[in-house]
Q: What sequence folds into this?
């Protein structure tokens, strides 16, 4: 499994945990995912880095507001799409 595929699977699994109400476990998984993904985004063009920072900010706002369903959507759809669009280059 490539790094990209691994990130996608981890993001989808994290989203599932949030949807199941396992927010503590999901929060820890999300931290691990962000730490793992960050170096890959550091190598992308600045416009992609800005999209990543914006998305990360939206995800953290959802986490702070305990809006687990919106956070799960960001992880499963927005992050996965950004990963596929930018890291498949």
A:
């Amino acid at each position: 499994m490539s790094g990209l595929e691994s990130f996608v699977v981890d993001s989808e699994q994290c989203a599932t945990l949030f949807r199941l109400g396992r927010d503590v476990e999901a929060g820890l998984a999300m931290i691990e995912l962000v730490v793992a993904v960050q170096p890959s985004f550091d190598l992308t063009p600045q416009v992609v880095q800005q999209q990543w920072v914006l998305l990360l900010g939206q995800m953290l706002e959802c986490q702070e507001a305990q809006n687990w369903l919106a956070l799960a959507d960001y992880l499963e759809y927005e992050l996965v799409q950004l990963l596929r669009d930018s890291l498949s280059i």
